[in-house]
Predict the 3D structure of the following.
Amino acid sequence: MSTAVQPHRHVSAQTERVPGPNFFRVLNSERIKILSLLSTRILLLCAIALMVGFAALQAWGAGQLSQSLRSGGPGPRESVNIAQLLPHLPVAGVTFSQLIIGSLAVLMISGEFTTGMSRATFAAVPTRWPVLTAKAVYTIVIGFVLTYVGGYLGGLVAQPILGNYNGLHLDMASWDVQRFMLLNAAYVAAVALMGLALGGLLRNSAGSIVTLVALQFVLPIIFQLIPGDFFKEARKYLPSNAADAMFQAGSSAPLDTTYLEPWQGALVLAGYVVVLLGAAYTALKQRDV
Amino acid sequence: MIQATDLAKVYGEKTAVDGVTFTVEPGRVTGFLGPNGAGKSTTMRMIMGLDAPTRGTVTVNGAPYIKHRAPLREIGALLEARAVHPGRTAFSHLSALAATHAIPAKRVHEVIEMTGLGAVAKKKVKGFSLGMGQRLGIAAALLGDPQVVVLDEPVNGLDPEGVVWVRNLVKYLASTGRTVFLSSHLMSEMAQTADHLIVIGRGKILADAPIQDVIDSQGKARARVRTDRPEDLSRLLARSGVSIQASEREVLEVSGLDPRTIAQIALDNRVLVYELTPLQASLEEAYMQLTKDEVEYRSDEGATAAHPSGAHAAQPAPAEAQEASR
């Protein structure tokens, strides 16, 4: 014990050139935190499994549909529809995987507060903002990379399934497939950032996840059920609908006018992220830990 | 050094810390004592920059916590509740904290060995006992080899060996010139560990003095007297401000008179006294006296009176004196 403690320093660390927290060190610290939790790895694997599973299911469903249309004398319009569906296939699971990644992002910060780890974290980094920024960086990386990789694996699994059916082919390198995968990857990163911000604001895992689910799944349905033009118009500005608008970017098909323009959709989605994250930064700075 | 000036924290209606001013000096162990809810933990969180003061300031080594370039190298703290994610191992918890200050892995291993966590360092904190959790908290506090160490209830949940270890550790840290600020509700522990005492009650400082002064200022002179005529001596000693207890046959505990006066009275009246021992007031009694009006969660009077080291001796109790002289 006595050998390990250094003798008294007369000079305060303030005047010595000793390393303190900077952004890259905090980034490293957050990396250790993320990788050292089993729950992170489980959630990441679940998200990948979900994406691959959904892609396979959708491939099988698309095959069955094309077969029944073919045997029942297909109208040309329906076969075109199936061909249009195919590029969506690799990212079919995003509807649900966004929730898993969003929850992971929520837990990344709400876990700090619920376990008391926040006291150690913010005592080490009293300026606080680098912690949230580092978490946001990993949130973006995880959301984007996982969705792209999950989508790619999903596509690879879907290909042989589609191969069993005549005339169905998924080209992973095609513009439409790549476009959907990249746009969805960006979308999941945005949803995860919203989750991170909610977790930082509410500091409560269950509450933040429920809020995220409400925003992504419940509100769109409620807005659809309420009659009247106002809600029909307002619905366009919900994050998931704004994302649907964004997904049309670069598409050769005519734009669906029930959505915003693609660039508007992207801006609205970014707006949610900026506002929520801004609130989270302010709360983190102002509130006691 | 820790300096608090008119430091206050108000939560809505409730004033947790009510304008305290104190200095925790380097080179000695300063105890921070107070009943539950007195404001100890809130004060410590404000020192660590976790809670913003409603009023006043607190500085560590001359600057507010948040202004330090490398805070973990200035001050290390173990704060009341565990500050660890239960899903992480002790090693990864300490590594994550060390990474923020570029503290090398060697130092992480050092504090793990120092706190006796070597065998469990790669196990999840979830399965740690309270004592192991405390050791991990202390390991985190020492990680940056800080000049100031703040420990909130460090012996909580430790086994006797751990208690002795903490006692030696804080004394050693103080002997190397470090500032050690330690809260505890165990007064016997404080009496053995602290050099200086800051007593807080309902957010106000009640005493700020060397531990012996705190005891002396509150405890009344007491003496144990053995005599073959306890009834006679009780009658002779009885006067206002003096309380006498007959604890066993031929033994009296007299408070409010110094041993010399007792001896003189016995001599003048030719009563044989075969033991006359000055008794020191315990820190516990001094503490009870100081905080008797400041306890937030008070048990009823009966429970207080039934306390083993009772408040009897500290209060003049004519009824008891009479009883003893009967």
About this structure: Chain B is about 35% helix and 25% strand.
